[in-house]
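For consistency, the fold was encoded as tokens, which produced the following:
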Amino acid sequence: MATVPTLTSLLFDPLPRSDPNMTFPRFATAVLVLCVISACSEVPHIITEYRIDVQQGNVLTQDMVSQLRPGLTKDQVRFILGTPVLVDMFHAQRWDYFYSLKKGNSSKAETRNFVVYFDDDGKLVRVTGDVAPATPTDGAVLPETRIREIDLGSLPTDGSATVPPPEEEGFFGKILESVGL
């Protein structure tokens, strides 16, 4: 004989817990809630992720800037330096060149600003910014390089020279070291 459900069992427990049709939706809801909650947590830095270098704007070298001379036309300047990042409609005689390089392994960004000014005829008048133009007496001066040469013969032989700290190993380096490779 089949049991007749009572009014209270229909109101408070309309579907019994053993119903096979409700097992998957309950499981899926629990997994979804767990995923949403875990997405808000902070990820421990067990693995050092690789971050790319982000370079934006125009790369201006000292060689490029040293080619600029007063009296060059806008087309000649565009040929030497490239298309400017900013040409303001309110300052049509001014071109802004911007360069930014953010290394992936550090939070500091290297930035350079360079501004080119023209007269009403479209001829180069002056430049300002982080990269200096060459002067007529700079013909024999080489541009500054960021590469340093260290004479190893000038280092003390007693071992008193300070050595920079080694880079921290990443996740896979630690695994390989623990295995013995």
About this structure: The radius of gyration is 33 Å. Strands lie at 54-57, 86-87, 94-102, 109-118, 124-129.
